[in-house]
Structures are given as C-alpha cells and as structure tokens.
C-alpha cells in the first residue's frame, strides 16, 4: 500500500484510464459545440455519431474495462480495439492516396504505429499470441520506451502542423485535445506492456529485423532468378523452333498458305464470271426493251 502511494500519476493505469475518458468527453463536447451551433437536438446527436465515431468507440472500450464484465472479457475488448485501429489504418492509407498532404501522411504513420504497438502488446499472454506465433515478429525487438517515443514524436509534429494550418481558436483547441488523447492512449499501452514485462509474460521473443531483412533479400533473389526474362525468352524461342522443325509445321503452314491462295483466286474468278454474266444479261435486257419501243 505504501508503494502504491508513491506511484506517480502517469504510472497509474487507473488515473490514465480516467483521464482518457474525460479527454474524449471534452473532445466530443467541444467539437460539437463548435460544429452544430443553432441545430436541433436530433441533428446534434447525428453529428456526434458522424464526426466522433472513433472517439465514441474508444470511449466504450475504456468504460467497459472499468466494470467487472469488461475485466472478465478484457482480451476480447483488446481484440476489438486492435481491429478498430486496423480499419482506421486502412482508411487513413486510402485518404493519403486520394489526397496526399503532410497532415494525412502523419495521421497514417501515427495510426500504423498505434496498430503495431497495440498488436504486439494486447495479444501477449493470450492464445492468439501462441497460435499465430507472434513471438517471431521482428516488431517485438522494438522496446517499450521506443514505441512510446515514436508516438510522442508523431503527435508533437502533428500538433505543430495543425497549429500552423489552423486559423481559428476552435481548431487550435481540438488539435491540442487530440494530442493529449493520443499521448494518454500511448501511455495506457505503455503501462500494460510494462505490466506484462514485469510478470514475464511472453518476453522470450525470437523475431528481429536482421532475420527479416535476410528473408526479404533471399525472397527477392529467388524471384529474380526465377524471372530472368532474357533467359526464359531464349529458352522458349529455342523450344518453339525445335518443335516447328520436328513437326514440320513450317511446311504445313506453306501448304495451307498455297491452298488459301488458290481458294482466293477461285473465288475471284467466280466473282468475275458472275459479274460478266450479269453485265451481259443487263445489256441484252436493255436492247430488247429498245426494240419493243421502236415497234410500238
């Protein structure tokens, strides 16, 4: 109990969770008060759902882990949180492709960092970690402090960019609150990872980036060897020539050409004869018509 009293607020998971909940509520209230001035209650509620869906889902997660039922299904809630940030990361990537800017790129990098951080923290000490052999992932090589430092750096840069591009007080306030939320979320993940490290939960991980680089290099070399287009083309050409010589396809093609030529000539002759016959018949018909006209 004495040790707990000496625990600093930013190392206390309960305080961090409460601060995240309060920050989300403040963000929702402030953003909607700026965006829906003069609108009805139904329009305000609809706007809250549309503009703050991510914050609302995260709020549900943190409210649930505060109660007994949420603690019982903590791993399932973590799965929900990881899946949510996976969808957000994909959406953010599409946003970067459609409208590239420094802000969209930083948002994408931040979401991907959160996703990797969550994925390699929240699934530890679960069946998912063991069944999918996540201990072999090279991202386990990144230390807890490094993950949090990367998040803090991206949040700080995003805040600076947003402050530069924002010209209204409301935008400055929302950008600041967003930054506070991400720093608190990162701290929450940091504390849970520290807890797992202290409890020695799945700490013997084998994955590292050196092996990953070696595997990628080997794969690229194999693909390069298997797709040597020049050699493949020469090999295919030689096989085709040998087959043509063996089956005497060139002679057969020549005979087919001759037959086609003879057939075309016959058709031309028949057409010419038909045209001449038609001309003769037409001439005779005209002469007969003239004679009948003279007799009359």
Descriptive account of the structure:
This protein is 82% helix and 0% strand. The N and C termini lie far apart (138 Å). With 296 residues, it is mostly helical. The protein is elongated and about 125 Å long.
Give a brief description.
The N and C termini lie far apart (138 Å). The radius of gyration is 38 Å and the shape is elongated.
The biggest beta sheet is recorded as: none
Radius of gyration: 38 Å
Strand content: under 5%
Backbone shape: elongated
Q: Which residues sit in consecutive blocks of at least 5 with pLDDT less than 50? A: none
Note the run of SSEs as H and E: HHHHHHHHHHHHH
- Beta-strand segment tally: 0
pLDDT averaged over residues: 80
Question: Percentage of helical residues?
Answer: over 70%
Q: First CA to last CA: what distance? A: 138 Å
Question: What is the tally of helical segments?
Answer: 13
List the helices and strands and how they pair.
Blueprint: H1 2-5, H2 13-35, H3 41-51, H4 53-64, H5 68-72, H6 74-98, H7 102-122, H8 127-131, H9 144-165, H10 169-198, H11 209-226, H12 229-247, H13 249-295
């Amino acid at each position: 109990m004495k040790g707990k009293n000496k625990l600093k607020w930013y190392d206390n998971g309960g305080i961090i969770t409460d601060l995240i909940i309060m920050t989300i509520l403040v963000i929702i209230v402030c953003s909607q008060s700026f965006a829906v001035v003069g609108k009805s209650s139904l329009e305000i509620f609809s706007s809250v759902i549309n503009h703050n869906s991510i914050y609302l889902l995260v709020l549900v997660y943190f409210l649930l882990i505060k109660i007994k039922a949420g603690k019982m299904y903590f791993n399932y809630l973590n799965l929900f949180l990881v899946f949510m940030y996976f969808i957000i990361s994909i959406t953010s990537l599409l946003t970067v492709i459609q409208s590239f800017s420094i802000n969209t790129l930083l948002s994408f990098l931040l979401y991907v960092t959160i996703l990797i951080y969550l994925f390699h923290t929240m699934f530890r000490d679960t069946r998912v970690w063991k069944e999918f052999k996540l201990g072999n992932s090279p991202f386990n090589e990144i230390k807890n402090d490094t993950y949090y430092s990367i998040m803090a750096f991206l949040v700080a840069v995003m805040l600076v960019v947003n402050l530069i591009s924002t010209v209204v007080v409301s935008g400055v306030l929302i950008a600041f609150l967003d930054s506070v939320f991400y720093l608190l979320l990162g701290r929450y993940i940091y504390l849970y990872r520290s807890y797992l490290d202290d409890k020695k939960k799945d700490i013997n991980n084998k994955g590292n980036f050196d092996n990953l680089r070696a595997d990628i290099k080997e794969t690229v070399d194999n693909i390069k060897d298997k797709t040597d287009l020049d050699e493949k083309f020469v090999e295919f050409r030689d096989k085709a020539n040998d087959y043509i010589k063996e089956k005497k396809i060139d002679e057969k093609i020549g005979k087919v050409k001759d037959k086609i030529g003879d057939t075309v000539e016959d058709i031309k002759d028949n057409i010419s004869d038909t045209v001449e016959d038609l001309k003769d018949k037409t001439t005779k018909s005209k002469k007969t018509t003239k004679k009948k006209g003279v007799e009359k």
